[in-house]
# Entry
Amino acid sequence: MKTNGYKPLTPAARLPKCPTGIQGLDEITDGGLPRGRPTLVCGGAGCGKTLFAAEFLVRGAAQFDEPGVFMSFEETGAELQANVASLGFDLTGLIRRKKIVLDHVYIERSEITETGEYDLEGLFVRLNHALDSIGAKRVVLDTLEALFAGLPNEAILRAELRRLFRWLKDKGVTAIITAERGRDQMTRHGLEEYVSDCVILLDHRVNDQIATRHLRVVKYRGALHGTNEFPFLIGDEGLSVLPITSLGLNHKVSNERISTGIPRLDAMLGGRGFFRGSSILLTGTPGTGKTSLAACFAQAAARRGDRVLFFSFEESPGQIIRNMRSIGLHMEPLVKSGWLRFHAARPTLCGLEMHLATMFREITRYKPAVVIVDPITSLLSAGSNHETKGMVTRLIDFLKGAEVTSLFTSLTHGGHALEQSEIAMSSLMDSWLLLQDLEGNGERNRVLYVLKARGMAHSNQVREFLISKRGIDLVDAYIGPNGVLTGASRVAQAAREKAEALTERQEAADRKRELERKRTALEQQIAGLRSEYETEVVELRRIDQQVDTKTRVLTAERTKLGRLRQADATVTATPHGNSRPKGK
Amino acid sequence: MMKTRTNQHPKTVSQRQPAKLWQLRLYVAGQTPKSLTAFGNLKQICENHLKGRYRIQVIDLLAQPHLSIGDQILAIPTLVRKLPQPMRKIIGDLSNTERVLVGLDLRAAA
# Structure
């Protein structure tokens, strides 16, 4: 095999790629499979090798106008057509339009006797004929290893396979060769020895009874590629590989705010609710009202005219509608008018990949503005914690890319630290509400905290979360010297405070009356004093007048006397003593 | 030229079994040494064991590639026993006469 033919150092020397059209794979491989070269796809039984190859051909023929030849060593043409038809591939139509040739190579060991020298020229002729008949650019050899079972002489076979791959390269066709996974090597018969340009490994693992498919590009000579294992799935639209990094972190962001459906909660979130397109995590222990809160949000969104898609993994849609009616949420009309859609599935129904695919598909079809997943933790049972995180990352990526507001409820089991088990997810979320049970005085009460809300001023306070016939409401929890009080204790505390206030008011009134009385008494006293004072003033004035009168009388008399004594000097009588005495 | 050459003999009965025609097809791809060897060997075996009741059809896949599909031909040369039923295939240059005879059911496996 050629090993030094490519120097992908300059963009001009970039390896030509052949797009597969398989969702996600072209992103991982940065454009597709190496054009004009064989690619080995290996994996165990039932991991999707044949489908992978078939999709490569069908998409090549349908989307990229590259006709292809499918040489099957295992399935007959009819079987293959039926199998891929279930994935929405119109193989039959493509065959009719001469875009694809299906050739079933059948080898029955018991029919064959080997005597002496031979080669596989027949296969070459056959393949060449098929290629030339439609001008094929792509070839699939589905489990070439069947030859090892059918032909006894391995030495000849190996020599011929080497020649075959050389020949495929010379023909310039992009080929996929599938092979069974070997026990301690990539393929059972060591085909990787011959195909060294690109090797893709498919894997089907069962974790806790749930199977997940993985794809890994083991080798891609001369090109950058993602080396991680990527989960992939086989849905009714073919394969899709789900690269975590496909979208990066460059979502468009919106400044629009949307209401939570609970005015008090909006108030806690800077007064206007969540950002559109943000992701919200709602955690809580069982029975704290996660679904109710989610339903409330859903109803508000649907009434506002946003399409809502509600993924339920625990309750059937009918049950949710019935239960929510009991708290005053009427979802049925919204479902009927098409603003709200439920999608319910058991988490254990299928693997994580399948759930994700279904969700992607539903979201793509329905194009909701709000997506609710209730609860995301149920999916944990369908995969490992790590996988779930990867899945949620991809889901959030996907939703954010589409500017869909998403709300995930998450069940925390009692006994665990409330914040801890969600660490994996919480860092991905923009907002995080925590619902909690507070037990005390023989009752449990629900409280709500806003643990985080990126990009908005949010309340750091606890609110009591009330679910009543009229819906959900938040009230201030009582926070006093005895700690946070909720429910009946809060009411009792309020009553106690009311009584205390009443007593205080009465006491104040009493004191006020007392003071009033005192004031009145003082005022009376003041009035008495004033009248006394006024009496004295009158007395004083009277004395003054008497003195005046007396002086006037004296002066008059003294003048009269002087006149009688012919005194010429005018004598001024003074009331006081230093004048001449009266009697002189 | 060995293309579609047939050796047809009148149905002379030389054995006790009822006469039946053996229809053989030899697939080749061009006149390679292996093909020529195979044809020579086949001819000889037929003459020795099936004299007068066989018919050989040589198909050159280079000239008629589409014929490779019908009989599921991969290896070259391949001898196909079309008749009598069931179909038998013998691949290789037929140099091992014993094995050819076993393969054609002309002799039980030792």
In short: The mean pLDDT of chain A is 82.
